[in-house]
Specification:
The chain is α+β, with helices and mostly antiparallel strands. Helix content is about 30%, strand content about 35%. The protein starts with a helix and ends with a helix. The relative contact order is 0.26.
């Protein structure tokens, strides 16, 4: 079950994309949320919008520069090491637009799930957006942005909406899994950067 939860959480990172899907107010932290993030907590919010599968925003502090944090999130060849996916690789690159394929191991009876995302890199703002274009994962879109908070600190905004395409998984349960597992994305990057000495 833990692998299934991890897969659903990573689907959030790999599958959902498109910064335009989130309202600007959804990006803003309240003073209370900002204080929690500064204490090292990871804040999770659900966008109040129509539809069964919800848009989630996860914000956390990383003790590394925004550029180094962005570089970790966009090191697709190391996603197996960073996020513990089965496989991740760039299929095509055209300037700052990449097609990235990732495979996630999900326990029996579901089996591996895969996705190809069109990923638009914006290194000047330490951000990227992603949107599913193919795969056994039904939908996945969102964006990641690292905001500088000092020379060796950044806030990471990870906004995602994902549906792994598991027929017997009701939307309410998927939403619950995402809310509990998406913070692991930031935890994985924290641990990776700590191992690398950033």
């Amino acid at each position: 079950m833990k692998n299934l939860l991890a897969a659903v959480g990573l689907v959030g990172l790999l599958v959902f994309g498109g910064a335009a899907q989130a309202r600007p107010s959804f990006d803003a932290l309240t003073a209370e949320e900002a204080a929690k993030v500064e204490r090292g907590e990871i804040v999770v919010n659900v966008e109040n919008s129509g539809g069964d599968v919800k848009h989630f925003r996860v914000v956390g502090l990383v003790n590394a520069s925004a550029q180094r944090t962005y570089e970790a999130f966009t090191d697709f060849a190391r996603y197996d090491e960073i996020f513990h996916v089965k496989d991740s690789r760039i299929l095509r690159a055209d300037g700052n637009v990449l097609h990235v394929r990732a495979t996630i191991s999900v326990p029996w009876p579901i089996g591996d799930k895969w996705v190809v995302n069109e990923t638009r890199l914006e290194p000047e703002t330490n951000s990227f957006s992603f949107n599913r274009v193919d795969g056994s994962i039904s939908s996945y879109s969102g964006y990641v942005k690292a905001v500088p908070k000092g020379p060796d600190r950044s806030h990471v905004y990870y906004v995602a909406k994902a549906d792994p395409g598991i027929p017997f998984l009701p939307a309410w349960l998927l939403n619950q899994f995402q809310a509990s597992m998406l913070p692991d994305t930031i935890k994985h990057v924290r641990a990776y950067l700590k191992r690398k000495g950033s």
